[in-house]
UniProtKB/TrEMBL annotation:
GO terms for cellular component: cell envelope. The lineage of its organism: Bacteria, Bacillati, Bacillota, Clostridia, Eubacteriales. This is Amino acid ABC transporter substrate-binding protein. Residues 46-269 form the Solute-binding protein family 3/N-terminal domain. InterPro entries: SBP_3_CS, Solute-binding_3/MltF_N. Coiled coil: none annotated. Pfam families: SBP_bac_3. It comes from Candidatus Aphodoplasma excrementigallinarum.
Amino acid sequence: MKKLMAAILAGVLAVCFVLSGCGGNETADTQAEADQSLQQVLDKDELVVGLDIAFPPMGFQDENNEIVGFDVDLAKEVGKVLGVNVQLKPIDWKSKEMELKSGKVDVLWNGYTITDERKKEVLFSDPYLANKQIIIVKADSPIQAKADITSGKVGLQTGSTAEDAIKADPIYDQIKGNLMMYDDNNTAMMDLDAGRVESVVVDEVVGKYYLSKHEGQYRILDEDFGDEQYGVGFRLEDHALRDAVQEALDTIKTNGVGDEISEKWFGEPGLML
């Protein structure tokens, strides 16, 4: 497998060489030579994945304190294709980009939404899963529409795209004084159950997972805060690693393994984009 990855690396560098040679672009050639991101992962035999371990079903700790989830399984399969081990490293999700830039992790991979703002400091893979920001309320709540959440407190995770989506929505001016920020979605949902907030804005994949585990306790409003897509995040300069991981993801999607992981965590195959 490592011979395969060496061949892929050689191919990537060869393409960079040809492109830079044809254009006489010494800068591009220098950048290609300087990008050792994939080789460094291969040399240390480890891909370090930064994640939030309170984000089910993408990445979380189960009853045995083992880190599991859809993204966890996907990352491990990518590791198999690359021929390296995968280290799961819990990080402070509020500081995720800083953790990546500092070199503490090789990638950010845990329901990480692709946004134009994040693209300024993070290199993304192609989208691999669709998502949206939904509104969850208790089953017996009088809240029926998006406009109704202005009547109570709204819970959401700090540094999440839920926060970005709310701030970009016209309703923000009406609810900004009622926002309750949490370090993780688990605590937000606990406060919803306890009545300390009247609604929670959260990723659809997370919200639906909670509903499946607590049937009859919550419901999802018909209106939401818009569609989005998940991607794997890399340092801006790490094109070689990004391309290798993307090729591995493409393989997983076509060889049936992606469907197996999707079936395991979402109850249906074919969800990978």
